[in-house]
Amino acid sequence: MTIQQLSVFIENHPGNLNKVLAVLADNSINIKALTIADTADFGIVRLIVSDPQKAFNALRDKHFSVQLQDILSVEMAPEPGSLYHILNLFATENVSLEYVYAFSYGSKSTLVLRTDNREKAVEIIRKNNLKSVTEADLK
Amino acid sequence: MIWNRDIECMSRDEMRKLQDRRLIDLVAKVYNHVPFYKRKMDELGVKPTDIKGIEDIPKLPFTYKQDLRDNYPFGLFAVPMKDIVRVHGSSGTTGKPTTVGYTRNDIENWKEVTARCFSMAGITSKDIVQVSYGYGLFTGGLGAHYGAENVGCSVIPMSGGNTRRQLQLMCDFGSTVLACTPSYALHMADAMKDFGYSIDDMKLRVGVFGAEPWTEAMRHELEKKLHIHAHDIYGLSEIMGPGVSMDCEYHDGLHIHEDHFFPEIVDPETKEPLPDGTEGELVFTTLTKEGIPLLRYNTRDLSTLNHEPCACGRTLVRMRKITGRSDDMLIIRGVNLFPSQIEHVLLELGETSAHYILYVDRQNNLDTLELQVELDENHMLDTIRDLQMLTRRIEHALNSACGLTIKVTLVQPKTIARSEGKAIRVVDKRKK
Asked: From residue B221, how far is each of B79, B183, B186, B249 by CA, in Å?
């Protein structure tokens, strides 16, 4: 029920995101999802890519502060209310979301989420038979 | 107005004889009572009897700030603690302050020299003196306080901060003298409007400013904005505190109270004594100090000396206004800060790289500090909250270690310029 996600630290300056993207382009890495969390001074770019380990190595070589981690992901039905339904399961169990984003590939939609209680989140996914997404599903 | 005409206008010959006598006594005292100096002098092969007067002073060892740290807290004191009536500390050193102790006589002498300083600025017993230097371990507040009280002024012990209240009491009490750092004086001047005051509400006529280097241009600005005569008071806790020297109404250098503090200028590289007019490191020997007497204490402040008599009638040697230092110490809101302290904190936390750059600026006339720290390539955090908590941990550790508020900004690894030689750790954007 996890996929690999890259988190890259960037300062808030014009052109900084493009430096990350240039490294990925140069290494023929495809981006499946990208989201940015920002503050006044810096941001975190979170990426789901075609070859996470290769992307991680390439970014490290260019001295980016980058983290590769397994992150929870579940499939969403392509219909109104499905995101609400899933997140409600976490809310009723009092699990807090640190961040959440979604992306589509083919005809499917995937939800990516980090919570303050990973064990409990896994339990909720299992108990409710949520369809998990793995790295292989993204190929 | 001259507080002690006998000393301040003494002939050079008489002054030299006084200094000769006092130096001979001092050297015997430190050799016999301070193991640090006995060892230092033995190493150099100098005996107290070799010192027959001021001309022998180059034979004596230097003392550095590090020596005070190494002998923390009371290792350099020359008298037992029962004879110490006061302890002060210099601000902002790595963990440990440098401590100094005063006997009752030391306090009397301090009162004497600060009273001379206040008189030099034309301050009399009719004045109401608002002391807005910090009171506490820092020597500024109590040093200025005792001097003003000795002159007979009405002293208002405000201490620093709380600008609104400073201005309110300045107005209500009719303070005629303001004693604080020049940057805080400028801040107060500019804040008046914000709090509904104008300079016409105030009775200020004199400013006694010190604890940080400032320029002639700053003097003119302060005089214009506050409608005062602004004077520069110099001092450091290791030697006494404020009152080591002060400029008179001619503002042509600061008169050093050389009957207590014997000054030399030495070459920053060779440490050889330099003649009048040549810039070098300012060195003091505390001729009368009992608590913590120091031989040839190197302040690392850069200045020149001038032994010509002054138009004011004083014969006391004058030092040029301090314009810089021979080491990398910064003075921020009167607090001493060495870049090495920052490095120490970062290494101790070990959560970022130790590559940093400190930006010093002055906003609304108050010094501001921003520290940019490179995030460690191997230490990425995935959430904004974790990164902000890291920032706060660093800010908190810096505040504990330096006593200063420093804004921390995380930057990408390898983005702070590496230099071939000495790394550039500090960018001081304050106007000189």
From this structure: 45, 11, 8, 17
CATH of the domain at B370: 3.30.300.30
Closest C-alpha among B217, B251, B250 to residue B232: B251
Determine, yes or no, domain membership for B141.
no
pTM over 0.80: no
Q: ipTM of this complex > 0.95?
A: no
B366 in a structural domain: yes
* pLDDT score of B376: 85
CB within 8 Å: A69 and B376: no
Nearest CA in chain B to A39: B384
What are the residue ranges in chain B where pLDDT is below 70?
Answer: 91-96, 418-423, 431-432
Tens of pLDDT, residue by residue over A73-116, are: 999 988 899 999 999 999 999 999 999 999 988 878 999 999 99
Residue type, B273: P
Query: For residue B431, what pLDDT is reported?
Result: 63
B384-406 residue pLDDT tens: 999 999 999 999 999 988 888 99
Straight-line distance from the first to the last Cα atom of chain A, in angstroms, rounded to the nearest whole number: 15
Q: Does B395 touch chain A (CB under 8 A)?
A: no
Residue B162 included in any domain: no
Model pLDDT, residue B93: 44
Nearest chain A Cα distance for residue B411, angstroms: 6
Note whether B223 and B215 are within 8 A (CB): no
- CA distance to A6, A114, B31, B49, B56, per residue, from B42 (Å): 65, 68, 9, 13, 16
CB contact under 8 A, B385 and A63: no
Q: Which of B375, B383, B385 sits opposite A65 (nearest CB)?
A: B375
Tell if the CB–CB gap between B380 and A39 is shorter than 8 Å. no
DSSP-derived letter for residue B65 is H
Task: For chain A, say whether B384 makes contact (Cβ under 8 Å).
Answer: yes
Interface contact B407, partner A, CB < 8 A: no
- Domain residues for the domain of B413 are 330-428
Residue B47's contacts (CB-CB under 8 Å, 6 or more residues apart) are B31, B41
Domains of chain A (ranges, CATH numbers): 2-70 (3.30.2130.10), 71-138 (3.30.2130.10)
Residue B423 located in a structural domain: yes
Q: Which residue has the higher pLDDT, A6 or A133?
A: A6
Interface touch A64/B413, C-beta < 8 Å: yes
In angstroms, the CA A74 to CA B427 distance is 49
Number of domains in chain B: 1
